[in-house]
Automatic annotation (TrEMBL):
Coiled coil, from the record: 87-117
Keyword Coiled coil (UniProt): yes
Keyword Glycoprotein in annotation: no
UniProt xrefs under PANTHER family: METHYLTRANSFERASE
Family matches, as InterPro entries: RNA_MeTrfase_RsmD, SAM-dependent_MTases_sf
Swiss-Prot/TrEMBL GO biological process terms: rRNA methylation
Taxonomic lineage of the native organism: Eukaryota, Viridiplantae, Chlorophyta, core chlorophytes, Trebouxiophyceae
Protein name in UniProt: Uncharacterized protein
Keywords: Coiled coil, Methyltransferase, Transferase
Organism: [Myrmecia] bisecta
GO molecular function, one term: methyltransferase activity
Length: 319
C-alpha cells in the first residue's frame, strides 16, 4: 500500500506542446483477448469486425440489376457508334490519366514517408529487454517520456510492488495513448504478464509500436487496440470482461493540446477496468494542474512529482 507523501511539487515552468510520458490478439502465445474494435495483429495485419461508413455509403447507392443492365447497354451503344480513331484516342487519354494518377499517388506516398520518419534514440531501461533501442517518430507524432523520468516512475511503482525489481507475473498493464509503447514495454520487460496498448494513429502502430514490440521480444504478451483512448474506456463500461477485465496498472499519457483531463478522469472513474488496487500513472502539463483530482474511485493521489517540464501524478490505494 502507498503512504501519502502529503506534499506536491510546485509547478514553475511551461510544458512542451504535447505529452512526453509516454499486440496483438495473440493465439496461444499469451493471455490476450480479441475485441470487436479494429485490432492490429502482428501476424495477420488489420481486421475489422464492423461495416465501415464507406461500405454503408456504397450499399446505399447500389444499383439494382435492371439499372446496371440499362447503363451497360447505353455505354455499349455509344461506343459502337464512335469511329475507331476516336476510340483509340479515348483509350490513350485513359492510359495517360491512369499513369498520371499512379505518379501522383507515388509522389504522395514518398512525401508522406519523407515527413514521417523514425529514429532509435530511446531505449528500454531494465529487465529482459534492458538496453534495447526502440523506435520513435521524428516530429510531433509521438512525444515519449524521457528515460530518466520513466526510470524514476518505475522505481516508485516497483517499490510499491514489493521492492523485488520485478512486477508480479500475473500483473496486467494498460498503456493509454501508447505512442512508442515505451511505458508498456518497460512494464513487460520488468515482469508484467500482459499489456494492452491503445494508439489511434495507424502509421505509429505500423512503423513504431509494432516494430518495438517485435524487437523487444514481447509480442506474445502484447495486444494493440487501434482506437481513441477515450472510446476504449467508454467501451469498457458497456461490455462485460472487456479486454480481459480490470488492470493492475494504467498509464495515461495524452497529447496535452488534444485532450480533456476532466473527461479522462470521469471515464476512469466509471470504468470497470479500474479495480480497488489499481495503480494509475498520469502525466500532465502545468496549466492542467487544477484539473487533476485528488481521488479516482477509492484511489488517492499518493505521489505528485515534477521532472523538469513533466508532471506525474500517481493514484493508488492508501493504507
Amino acid at each position: 500500500m502507498w503512504q501519502s507523501s502529503g506534499t506536491r511539487a510546485l509547478p514553475n515552468c511551461l510544458p512542451a506542446a504535447s505529452c512526453s510520458l509516454c499486440g496483438r490478439a495473440s493465439s496461444g502465445k499469451g493471455g490476450s483477448w480479441a475485441t470487436s474494435e479494429d485490432i492490429f495483429n502482428l501476424e495477420e495485419g488489420w481486421s475489422l469486425d464492423v461495416l465501415g461508413d464507406d461500405a454503408h455509403a456504397e450499399a446505399s447507392f447500389a444499383m439494382d440489376e435492371d439499372e446496371e443492365e440499362g447503363l451497360g447497354m447505353a455505354a455499349r451503344s455509344i461506343l459502337a457508334s464512335m469511329p475507331a480513331h476516336k476510340l483509340h484516342a479515348l483509350e490513350a487519354d485513359q492510359d495517360a490519366a491512369d499513369e498520371a494518377n499512379a505518379a501522383l499517388k507515388a509522389n504522395e506516398r514518398r512525401s508522406a514517408a519523407a515527413e514521417r520518419k523514425t529514429h532509435n534514440r530511446l531505449r528500454i531501461i531494465s529487465g529482459t529487454a534492458a538496453g534495447k533501442r526502440i523506435r520513435s517518430s521524428r516530429g510531433e507524432q509521438t512525444r515519449p517520456m524521457m528515460e530518466k523520468v520513466r526510470g524514476a516512475v518505475f522505481d516508485m511503482l516497483l517499490s510499491h510492488a514489493g521492492g523485488t525489481g520485478q512486477f508480479p507475473a500475473n500483473a496486467r498493464w494498460l498503456d493509454l495513448f501508447a505512442g512508442t509503447g515505451s511505458v508498456g514495454i518497460e512494464a513487460l520487460s520488468r515482469g508484467c504478464g500482459q499489456a494492452h496498448f491503445i494508439e489511434l494513429d495507424r502509421w505509429v502502430v505500423d512503423s513504431v509500436l509494432a516494430p518495438n514490440l517485435e524487437s523487444c521480444g514481447v509480442v506474445a504478451k502484447a495486444t494493440v487496440h487501434t482506437m481513441k483512448a477515450e472510446d476504449f474506456l467508454r467501451r469498457s463500461a458497456e461490455l462485460v470482461r472487456f479486454a480481459g477485465g480490470a488492470f493492475d496498472y494504467i498509464s495515461v499519457c495524452p497529447p496535452y493540446l488534444l485532450v480533456s483531463y476532466p473527461e479522462l478522469f470521469q471515464l476512469l472513474e466509471t470504468s470497470p477496468l479500474v479495480h480497488k488496487d489499481t495503480v494509475i500513472v498520469v502525466e500532465y502539463p502545468k496549466r492542467s494542474a487544477h484539473e487533476i483530482p485528488d481521488q479516482v474511485k477509492n484511489l488517492a493521489r499518493v505521489r505528485d512529482r515534477q521532472y523538469g517540464r513533466t508532471f506525474v501524478a500517481i493514484f493508488a490505494a492508501e493504507e
